[in-house]
Write a structure and sequence with these properties.
With 228 residues, this protein is an alpha/beta fold. The chain is built from ten helices and eight strands. It has an eight-stranded parallel beta barrel, surrounded by seven helices. It is globular, with a radius of gyration of 17 Å. The N and C termini lie far apart (57 Å). Belongs to the NanE family.
Length: 228
């Protein structure tokens, strides 16, 4: 797939993030591939997955694949180095998601240097997971193809809201030319629709669709609060 068709296929669509945390019952690439397949049946325009084995497991699915590699316990852990980004691309991701903040990266490279290095190796698109408008402006200048709001509320630059950061989506869409993928704390279909209205190019939803433990806890907590 070339870059333009990939973006066109995501435009106005739902990207489903299929991830499970280490130690959870669903933490298996085969399970994540099955969840991704089910999401496509439901209308997902794209899939986002974490880890090299998971990317390989879903690479043949008929929608664009956003791949990332979470590694380390430092602030920057989403595809934190050029080596991680190259591995994600080689595993079959159409789009490589990397930390798109202005924070120091573990390998000492700047975001721009990471993007240049990845472009020299692969024609995969690059999604910068940002935490603020300043991040997005810098990521666009560095050459990112897609700007995500993934890290809003997690870098100290913006408050962590109960739902999606619709204000940030609007700010980035108004200031930057690159497509904005809204991601982070989308709990309802109404949230997703509001993101498109705010200027998002596409919306990525994970927990509310693919994380049974969290979804179950929402219902269980509600029932507990309703007990006399």
């Amino acid at each position: 797939m070339t870059s333009t068709p990939i973006l066109e296929r995501l435009h106005g669509g739902l990207i489903v993030s299929c991830q499970a945390y280490p130690g959870e019952a669903m933490r298996d690439p085969r399970t994540m591939a099955q969840v991704a397949d089910a999401a496509i049946v439901g209308g997902a325009a794209g899939i986002r997955v974490q880890g090299i084995d998971d990317i390989r497991a879903v690479a043949a699915l008929p929608v664009p694949i956003i791949g990332l590699w979470k590694d380390g316990d430092a602030d920057v852990f989403i595809t934190p180095t050029l080596e991680h980004a190259v591995a994600v691309a080689d595993a079959g991701a159409d789009i490589v998601a990397i930390d798109g903040t202005r924070r120091r990266r573990p390998d000492g490279r700047t975001l721009a240097e990471t993007i240049v290095g990845l472009r020299a190796h692969s024609d995969a698109l690059i999604m910068a997971d940002c935490g603020s408008l300043d991040d997005a402006i810098a990521a666009e200048a560095a050459g990112a193809d897609i700007l995500g709001t993934t890290l809003s509320g997690y870098t100290g630059e913006r408050p962590k809201s109960d739902g999606p950061d619709l204000e940030l989506i609007g700010l980035i869409a108004a200031r930057c030319a690159r497509p904005v993928v809204a991601e982070g704390r989308f709990h309802t279909p109404a949230h997703a629709a509001a993101a498109i209205a705010a200027g998002a190019y596409a919306v990525c939803v994970g927990t509310a669709i693919t994380h049974p433990a969290t979804i179950t806890s929402w219902f269980a907590r509600s029932l507990a609060e309703a007990r006399p």
